[in-house]
Amino acid sequence: MSSTHIRRHVRAPRERVYRALLDVRAVALWKVPDGMTSHIHTFEPHEGGSIRISLTYEAPTGTGKTTAHTDTYHGRFVKLVPNEQVVEVDEFETADPALRGEMTISITLTDADGGTDILAVHEGLPSGVSPADNELGWQLSLAKLAALVEAG
C-alpha cells in the first residue's frame, strides 16, 4: 500500500479552513476533482460520525471504481482537533479486490505567512489506485478548497 503527501498554502485563517473541511456544502464543492460531480449521502462531522460520498465522472469515458462511472466511498471521522486536524478512514465500495481496503486521510492545518499551511496525507492506498492519480486528484481538490476559503 502506498501514500501521498500534498502541501498547499492558503491565504485564509485556520478557523475558516477547518470549517470548510467539515461543512457539508463546502465539501460538496471542494472535495471533488475536476471532471466529476459530488453527491453526499451521509456526512456527520463529529468523531465517530459517518461519511458516504459518490463522485461521478462527467465524461462518459470516465471509469468508476463502484459503477461504470462512479466512485462511492464510505467511512468515518476518527479524529477532529478544532482548527488543527481532521482524520477520516474511508473505503471504496467496490467488488474489485485491488481497490478494497481502508485508507486514512489526515489533513493538518498550521499557521504560516499570514494564512494556513495544509498538509493532506492519504495513507493505505489500495494497489489498484495510482499514487500519481491520487496526488493529482488531491491537488485539484485542494486548489478548490483554497479558492473557496480565500474568497471568504
UniProtKB/TrEMBL annotation:
<comment type="similarity">
    <text>Belongs to the AHA1 family.</text>
</comment>
<dbReference type="InterPro" id="IPR023393">
    <property type="entry name" value="START-like_dom_sf"/>
</dbReference>
<protein>
    <submittedName>
        <fullName>SRPBCC family protein</fullName>
    </submittedName>
</protein>
<feature type="domain" description="Activator of Hsp90 ATPase homologue 1/2-like C-terminal">
    <location>
        <begin position="11"/>
        <end position="150"/>
    </location>
</feature>
<dbReference type="Pfam" id="PF08327">
    <property type="entry name" value="AHSA1"/>
</dbReference>
<dbReference type="InterPro" id="IPR013538">
    <property type="entry name" value="ASHA1/2-like_C"/>
</dbReference>
